[in-house]
Amino acid sequence: VEGLRQLLAARGVRLTVVDPVASEGLVVSSTKIRELLLEGNVEGAAQLLGRPHDVEGTVERGAGRGRGFGFATANVRPEAMLPANGVYAARALLMGSAMGVAGGGAAPGGRPILYGAVCNVGVKPTVQEAGPIMAEAHLFDFDGRDLHGERIRIAFLERLREERRFPSLEALLAQIAADAARARSVLGRPPPM
């Protein structure tokens, strides 16, 4: 810090050093937040951020398997760091068209709409051999219209489980239903103070 102070002073710039901030014994830092996200500890990351970690991106066209299973998803390759692969209770904010046209996923007048969601982060090991890591959010009480090209922000509230391969499609569908029920339960709890 002293070396930086001298370099800046030589250029007429004043340096102000802020003391570390702690939250419940953890020093708030971008490094610690990244660590927590890589562990899937989105609750810990939210504690340090002062809000849930969220990512934003444009909904991409998927293979359509989720729709066929009764769990249509908004497939997003986000523009920021995803938490560890797994399944999360989340909130999804539909913001409208990536092309700048009002409407789309947004409410009339272009206002964003917030949905509860269950979100898988990962590579879909039961139905796909390999592929990019994506966020796939199943929006609760959504009308099912096509969201391809829409902007979406996904906030991760709680990790429900790790991502894993299932022995059959039936086992996967049963687990998705259980994950959705658990996510709805998480979303129904009041937020921590």
Average pLDDT confidence is 86
Residue runs with pLDDT of under 50 for 5 or more positions: 99-103
Strand content: 25-35%
- Using only C-alpha atoms, the radius of gyration works out to 20 Å
| Major sheet summary line | 6 strands, antiparallel, barrel
Percentage of residues in helical conformation: 25-40%
| Broad shape | elongated
Distance between the termini: 35 Å
- In oligomeric terms, what are we looking at? single chain
What's the order of the H and E elements? HEEHHEHEEEEEH
Structural class: alpha+beta
Cross-sheet strand order for the largest sheet: 3-4-7-6-5-8
Structure summary, number of beta strands: 8
Number of helices: 5
Question: Would you summarize the structure shown here?
Answer:
The protein has 193 residues and is an alpha+beta fold. 26% of the residues lie in helices and 28% in strands. Strand 1 and strand 2 form a beta hairpin.
Describe how the helices and strands are arranged.
Elements: H1 2-9, E1 22-23, E2 26-27, H2 30-39, H3 42-49, E3 53-60, H4 65-69, E4 74-76, E5 86-97, E6 113-122, E7 134-139, E8 150-161, H5 169-188
Antiparallel strand pairs: 1-2, 3-4, 3-8, 4-7, 5-6, 5-8, 6-7
Helix pairs in contact: 2-3
Report on the structure:
This protein has 193 residues and is an alpha+beta fold. Helix content is 26%, strand content 28%. The protein is built from 5 helices and 8 strands; from the N terminus they run αββααβαβββββα. The protein has helices at 2-9, 30-39, 42-49, 65-69, 169-188; strands at residues 22-23, 26-27, 53-60, 74-76, 86-97, 113-122, 134-139, 150-161. The strands form 2 sheets. A 6-stranded antiparallel β-barrel has the order 3-4-7-6-5-8. The chain has a two-stranded antiparallel sheet with strand order 1-2. A hairpin with a 2-residue loop joins strand 1 (22-23) and strand 2 (26-27). Helix 2 (30-39) packs antiparallel against helix 3 (42-49). It is elongated and about 65 Å long. It starts with a helix and ends in a 5-residue tail after the last helix. The relative contact order is 0.18.
